[in-house]
Amino acid sequence: MAVIRTVIRGVGASLPKRIMTNQEMSSIVDTTDEWIAERTGIRQRHIASDNELTSDLGIAAARQALVRSGIDPVEIDLVICATATPDRTFPATAVKIQHGLGVTKGAAFDIQAVCSGFVYAMATADNFLKTGQFKRAIVIGAETFSRILDWTDRGTCVLFGDGAGAVVLEAQPQHGTREDRGILSTIIRSDGRYEDLLYVDGGPGSTKTTGHLRMNGREVFRHAVQKIHGVIEETLIQTGYTADEIDLFVPHQANKRILDGIARKLGVGPEKIVVTLEKHGNTSAASIPLALNEAFESHRIKEGNLVLMEAMGGGFTWGAVLVRW
C-alpha cells in the first residue's frame, strides 16, 4: 500500500571561522588539553564572532542543503529551526532564516528542546509532511552556545561549541515497506523531573537575564546512556530492525564516554559511528546535522543506507529518528 514518507533531499552545514583549541582553553580556565581530551574526546570547537548570529549560521547551512537538494527556495513551505540560543526572545530565529533564504510561503517557527532539538524538529516536520499540510521543509539545528557559557566553569565551558546544520525534506510516495526511503520512525520523550540537572540559570520570565549553562555532569551521564539506549531499543522494536542492520549511527555529540557507552549497549562497531566531537565539541541541536554533513562529505553515507540518529538534552528531553537515506 502506497504511503507518504519524508525523504532527505539535501544536507548542509556552517561553522564559525574561529577555532578554539584545548590549548587556548587552558589559558582561560584551569584545565589542560589532556584533561579535556581524556574526559570528553574534544580537541577543539568553533566559536562565533561577536557579529555572527545563530540565524547567520542557520542561513548558510540551509543554503548549502538547498543547493545540494536541487530544490529552489520558493518551493519550500516549512522552515523549522531547532535552537536554544535564538537571536532574540522573539520573533523566532526560523522566521529570520526563512527571510534570508527567500522563502515567502508556508510557516516558520523554532523548536526548543536543547540538544534533542534537531530530533524533535525532524519528528515535527515529518508529521506535517506525512499529513500533506506541507510538501517540502528545511529543518535546521543552529546554536551559539558560547554566548551562554560561564567561562570560569571548566566543567561546562570546555564542552560546547557553535555551528549549524540543515536538511531539506520532501514528502514522497513510497511503497509502505521497510525498504522505503525516508523517515521510518521518530520517537520523542521528556521528563521534567530532571530539569535541574542541566539548565540555564536565567531567562526573560524569571531573572530578566540570559543566564549561564549549569550541569550536573555525573547525573546527566548516568541518565543519558540509559534513556538513549531505551529509545533506540523502542525504535528498533517499532520498525522491526536490529542493531546489526543499521548502516550508520549518527548520535548527538555530547561526550565520548556517552557515545562509547551507548555503542557498547547496542553492539555497534566504531566503523558505523559518525563522531565529530573531537573538532566540533558539543554543538547542541546542531550536532546531529553537522555529523550528517560530515558523513555526506566523506562519502560514508549512501542512498539506501539505514541511518539512526539520537539525542538527549536538558529537560530532560530525548529521542531517536530512523531514516533510510
Structural features, described:
It is a single chain. This protein has 325 residues and is an alpha/beta fold. It folds into 2 domains: 3-174, Peroxisomal Thiolase, Chain A, domain 1, CATH 3.40.47; 182-324, Thiolase/Chalcone synthase (Peroxisomal Thiolase, Chain A, domain 1, 3-Layer(aba) Sandwich). Helices cover 32% and strands 26% of the residues. The protein has 10 helices and 13 strands. The chain has helices at 22-25, 33-40, 54-69, 93-101, 117-130, 154-157, 217-239, 256-266, 277-280, 287-297, and strands spanning 3-14, 19-21, 44-46, 78-82, 107-111, 136-144, 162-174, 182-190, 198-200, 213-215, 248-251, 306-313, 317-324. The strands form 4 sheets. The chain has a 5-stranded mixed beta sheet with strand order 1-7-6-4-5, with helices on both faces. Strand 4 (78-82), helix 4 (93-101) and strand 5 (107-111) form a beta-alpha-beta unit. Helix 3 (54-69) packs across helix 4 and helix 7 packs parallel to helix 8. The longest helix is centred in the last third of the chain and has 23 residues, at 217-239. The protein is globular. The mean pLDDT is 96.
Per-chain topology:
Elements: E1 3-14, E2 19-21, H1 22-25, H2 33-40, E3 44-46, H3 54-69, E4 78-82, H4 93-101, E5 107-111, H5 117-130, E6 136-144, H6 154-157, E7 162-174, E8 182-190, E9 198-200, E10 213-215, H7 217-239, E11 248-251, H8 256-266, H9 277-280, H10 287-297, E12 306-313, E13 317-324
Parallel strand pairs: 4-5, 4-6, 11-12
Antiparallel strand pairs: 1-7, 2-3, 6-7, 8-13, 9-10, 12-13
Helix pairs in contact: 3-4, 7-8
